[in-house]
Structure formats: structure tokens, C-alpha cells
């Protein structure tokens, strides 16, 4: 049997605050929301879950901000436009736009310090982060 990853889970300090952040960032409302958990439906059936660091079982052992979500865009101009938009919104930018082996990219941080990588893939032969 082949497994398929369908849910990305981030452990967050406050799921309600994080859900508000992601609702604004993604332009969509959560499909599920409670004081300890929120979930967003994403493209291609993937879901993004925001789980309270205090209520997750077994207890979370990762440091805050230990995760990264990568968002793929079609070209460098779209990456630059997203960087400008997120900068205007006040997101912390951890890496300014730069060309890397896998493509043109920048990294912002969510309220819990999780990395939000935006990139346009390099020409064939480059690898994804």
C-alpha cells in the first residue's frame, strides 16, 4: 500500500490566533475551528491543521517554529509580489528573496515562528526544498 500525506500539522501556542493569521494570509476560512484546533482545506486535497501545543497527544517535543510550509508559485515575479504583500502585512521576513539551487525563494515566519517558504521552482534539474 502506498501512503499519501494529506494533512500538515503545526503545533501552535494559540489556535484561534493562528487560525486568524492563516485565514488572512490564505484568503480562506477554516473548515474546522475550536479553542484547541483549527483546520484549513488547501489545494489538491491537502489540509493544514493548527493544533494547540498544550493539548496535542503525545506531547509535542519540537521547538516552536521547527516546521516549514513551502508554497509554490509559477515564477520569480509572483515570488517578489508575494514578498512585497507579506512585508506590507507585517510578517517577519527571515530570508529576503534569493536565487537558490531549487529556485527563487524567500522565507517569512508565522506567529509561532514556523517558516513559510515561497518559491518558484528552478528550471528542470533543480530540487525542491
Amino acid at each position: 500500500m502506498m501512503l499519501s500525506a494529506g494533512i500538515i500539522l503545526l503545533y501552535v501556542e494559540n489556535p484561534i490566533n493562528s487560525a486568524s493569521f492563516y485565514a488572512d494570509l490564505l484568503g480562506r476560512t477554516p473548515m474546522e475551528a475550536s479553542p484547541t484546533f483549527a483546520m484549513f482545506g488547501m489545494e489538491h486535497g491537502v489540509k493544514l491543521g493548527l493544533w494547540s501545543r498544550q493539548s496535542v497527544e503525545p506531547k509535542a517535543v519540537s521547538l516552536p517554529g521547527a516546521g516549514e510550509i513551502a508554497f509554490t508559485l509559477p515564477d520569480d515575479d509572483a515570488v517578489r509580489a508575494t514578498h512585497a504583500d507579506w512585508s506590507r502585512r507585517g510578517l517577519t521576513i527571515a530570508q529576503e528573496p534569493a536565487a537558490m539551487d531549487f529556485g527563487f525563494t524567500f522565507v517569512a515566519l508565522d506567529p509561532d515562528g514556523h517558516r513559510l517558504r515561497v518559491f518558484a521552482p528552478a528550471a528542470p534539474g533543480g530540487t525542491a526544498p
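The longest helix spans residues 76-88. The chain has two domains: 6-55, 65-129.
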